[in-house]
Amino acid sequence: MDIKQDTTPLQLPQELIDNIIDHLHDSPRELKACSLVSHSFHPRSHFNFFQRVDVRGIEAALRFFTHLSPETRAIIRTLTLSAPDSRTAVQFAQLPWIPCLQSLHLNHLILRRLELDFLKTAFSGLHITYLETQYCSSSSVSEFRSMLWSLPSLTTLIVIFPYFDDHSDRDNDSPSRKSALSTLTTTKCDLLSPLFLTNLHDLRRLNIALSFGHDVRRFAHVVQAVCASLRHLSLEMEGNPEVAPPLMMPPLQSFTFKVFGNSVQLKSTLAWGMNLLEVNASNLAESIEIITFRPCIYDIPTMNAVLAHIEAYKVLDTLADLFPLVKKVHIAFVFMHDGLSLNSVPTEMLATLPSKDDMTDTITKVLPKLAERKTLVVDACEFTTVENEAVA
Predict the structure, then answer these.
(1) Are strands 254-261 and 376-384 parallel, antiparallel or unpaired?
(2) Residue 354: which of 302, 313, 298 has the closest Cα?
(3) I need a surface site. Which of 15, 89, 155, 361 has the fewest CB within 10 A?
(4) Considering only CA atoms, which of 245, 293, 251 is closest in space to residue 272?
(5) pLDDT tens readout for residues 315-353
(6) CA atoms of 208 and 234, how far apart (whole Å)
């Protein structure tokens, strides 16, 4: 008996096909393959593929957008422009209009006054909610802030290691309406001028890197300006804490204290952080839910060195009494070594490093009150390089 094979293609509901393809939104290779399966697969694959565009090099960006139809450009929601080799001036006027852009990432670019002025004009007609710049240089702090005023819908701003030719602190373009910014991450305290801060009525999450001294004193005014709405604060500290007065903080839901250095530096900075919490205990006692300490140790130590360092964390056990309502005290150790990663560390050195279980057991013994209340969480033995950590 002859058995005929059914060659009829499998018919799936379009809604199911679209749902399957949507799960591949961050896999460009798979999306390319799906676009070639059939007519029913192509539209959704095409849409997901062009929603996020990452272009390295301005000339490459110009060539890329030249071949895109207006319909395809209208699909783009997230655009990343990078200059991987060196800082490059961006001639934004040569780039085509992207009408539905919501998220913009700029890396290693020069944003001259001409480019910033063009962005101000272009942004006024866009609904951008997310802006991130990394290692970008601008003509001045005030020019950069002026560009930000043209983004009334911006809710998340991340400014990592910016460079400004002119550091003078003058606002040359006052905002016509309040900012919608709710999340701000920056490594440059100069960005936060009094006028800029007075319009951040909705800022709830602030992540900032500071140097002890001038930055801390200036940051005190920052916190005071946004205290009505601020609920999540992350501080990354560098320098000598002996010259830094403690800050007064508003009622927060979460507080993260991240420090870099060797064991001696971390010990003194940890003491400053604990003093900060003690001074603000009355403000935080009824609101704080999560407290995170993230010590980043520059040198990969031996087991004995780590255990000796952990003794300095005994002071954290007082958090159990200061903040009876806290739900989690998170201690996240990161070990870094210049030029070394876990894969390149010699085998004999690996044998001397503590395991996560060893670290957890030791911290638990040092902090019995927090351990007993089951609010203590320990993350340890993350190995990375100094360079990677700086970029992250």
Answers:
(1) unpaired
(2) 302
(3) 15
(4) 245
(5) 888 888 888 888 888 888 776 655 444 444 555 555 666
(6) 6
